[in-house]
Amino acid sequence: MSNVFRVPPVSSLSSLPRHLQVSNGIKDAIRKHGLNLGDRLPSEQRLADMSCVAVLTVRRALVDLVREGIIEKKIGKGIYIKKTISVAGARIGLTVLDTMARVTSHPAILSLIKGISEVFDQKKYHLEILFITSEMIRHANWSKITNCEGLDGAIVFAQEVPDKIISELRARTKCVVCANRFNQSESPLIAFRAMARELADHLLHLGHQRIALVNGPENIEISGEVFLGYETSLESAGIAVKPEWVGNSDYNHRGGFEWTLKIMKQKNRPTALIMGDDFMALGALDALRQLRLRCPDDVSVVSFNDFDCAKTSAPPLTTMRIDFNKFGQMLARQIAALLEGSEKISKKSLKGKLILRSSSGPVRQ
Asked: Which architecture, in CATH terms, is 190-321?
């Protein structure tokens, strides 16, 4: 932990008033540096210099902290800690897309929350779910997320949260960890590009050259990574990507079903399908049955996640197993490190494991 007390500069991107940004920054610094009752803070002028604001703005922030009982100002002596701010008891928000919010039924979110909670229970942190609704996305109304009071940090798991809103969250809470933001150096990642390439390589090894991809939503970074892995594998085998064999859908049965019908009704249809997740793959299997095509004799199907349904489907799915519990622990440990004052956060990546089952087989001659 650094011994140098630092308050971050205010952000012009934040919707918070400047004095509130300063007071939040001072509280975060007190917590991170483990200051105790009676410890002295830097002068008003020094706090103003660090925050890049006027001294009057700092004084207004200090008035708020006096009212909260966190500091006291002693005339002629300085500013002193009146109440310690413990990391234990920290409240951390987790953004979850509302279509995945049924944690008792969606295996990825259930496993992710379990992994986070295993770490948080040890740290005595409190997890709060922040639901991202379709209305918030459609109307770009993120006030329910950016105006959350009392949060000490946030884990941004929902890919739909834009970078601008993440910047506002960082201005408010400082401790923000984003999952699968491939353009951010410190973001914990699931290696979707490598997994997509491994799935495509597996199908190529089985003799397939006509391979389609039914990907996740087009506007999220994960889908871009999956496509790059798929494209790299095909190009390494001298095969060009056919745009008519690439589709984007929500991660659900309906999307997989409809896109499989669309692709497989083409005159020159593929012999293998890579689906964005296991639920989409179940839709693909139903669509193939409707078209009287057999899996894997006529068409091989592979996917991502290895949910329980992948083991019990007919046929059982070849899929990339993703340990969402472990990924939740990675996210939780990273935000704990930020709360505890770490200044260097190393980027971590979670690899998947190819699980071979009977939905993929040699290409039919």
From this structure: 3-Layer(aba) Sandwich (3.40)
Q: Is there a contact between 338 and 327 (Cβ–Cβ < 8 Å)?
A: no
How many helices and strands in the chain, by DSSP H and E?
A: 13, 14
Domain with residues 91-189+325-348, CATH architecture: 3-Layer(aba) Sandwich (3.40)
pLDDT, tens digit (0-9, with 9 covering 90-100), for 236-255: 999 999 999 999 999 999 99
Tokens in use for 103? 């944690």
Span 179-228, pLDDT tens digits: 999 888 788 999 999 999 999 999 999 999 999 999 999 989 999 999 99
For domain 18-81, say whether CATH 3.90.850.10 is its number. Answer: no
Classify residue 89 by burial, with Cβ atoms within 10 Å: 0-12, 13-18, 19+.
exposed
- Residue 40 DSSP symbol: B
| Residues 6+ away with beta carbon under 8 Å from 119 | 125, 328, 329, 332, 333, 336
Alpha helices per DSSP H over 238-323: 253-264, 278-290, 308-312
The pTM is what?
A: 0.78
